[in-house]
Specification:
Low-confidence stretches: 1-10, 36-40, 44-65
Number of helices: 7
Structural class: alpha+beta
Helix content: 10-25%
Number of strands: 8
Strand order of the largest sheet: 2-1-3
Radius of gyration: 19 Å
Oligomer: single chain
Largest sheet: 3 strands, antiparallel
Strand content: 5-15%
């Protein structure tokens, strides 16, 4: 559970409550200031502390505890962590834990996407090629929920053999501009060796 405050953190009541399933890569973007909170019930009082905890993963709802990610079995700290998502094993990995598996040269489109896109889908269109190769990441430049929602849409369109131009036209120009300027590092997934 993630609470959003209207202006800045205070002891006032929350303006919105947003449930964030941090197992998913296709979460809608969360763009405002958010904090994780842990609720303790002690007797009749309801205490709320500012500890960075509690995310609910649908696959672990019976336990209702923090979702573990990565080879280190740690949670996603929204304030400090950057994680990459592996589409093949549907898992998140901290960049700090996978940096030893950094690719020395750019991976193939098939290794990043999980399929070989038709040459007509991206041929001659540098922007489509660039956008299709952006890794799925959260934290840092892509915020709490990351860029998975957009990147998974791009992959879906390419896999269907459709043209990306209409999807690109609908995208936020700031996102398109920012990822077009970055030379991303790629890492080998520790479980399946896909490029993430």
């Amino acid at each position: 559970m993630v609470l959003s405050y209207a202006d800045r953190p205070s002891d006032s009541a929350p303006s919105d409550i947003v449930f964030f399933d941090d197992c998913r890569a296709d979460s809608e973007p969360i763009e405002e200031l958010f904090y994780r909170w842990k609720a303790d019930i002690s007797g009749k009082s309801f205490l709320v502390s500012r500890s960075l905890v509690t995310s609910i993963c649908s696959s672990q709802l019976p336990r209702q505890d923090q979702t573990k990610h990565c080879t280190c079995d740690a949670t996603f700290n929204i304030n400090t962590d950057i994680q990459r998502y592996c589409w093949a094993c549907t898992s998140w990995y901290h960049v700090r834990c996978i940096k030893h598996g950094k690719f020395r040269k750019a991976p193939t489109a098939e290794n990043v996407l999980g399929f070989q896109p038709s040459l007509s889908d991206v041929a001659g269109d540098i922007l489509s090629q660039t956008l299709s190769m952006v890794p799925i990441e959260r934290g840092g430049r892509f915020g709490i929920s990351g860029n998975g929602n957009l990147q998974l849409q791009i992959r879906s369109v390419l896999k269907a053999g459709e043209d990306l131009s209409s999807l690109i036209a609908e995208m936020d120009s700031k996102y398109v501009d920012s990822v077009s300027r970055v030379a991303f590092d790629y890492f080998s997934c520790p479980h399946c060796q896909s490029a993430i």
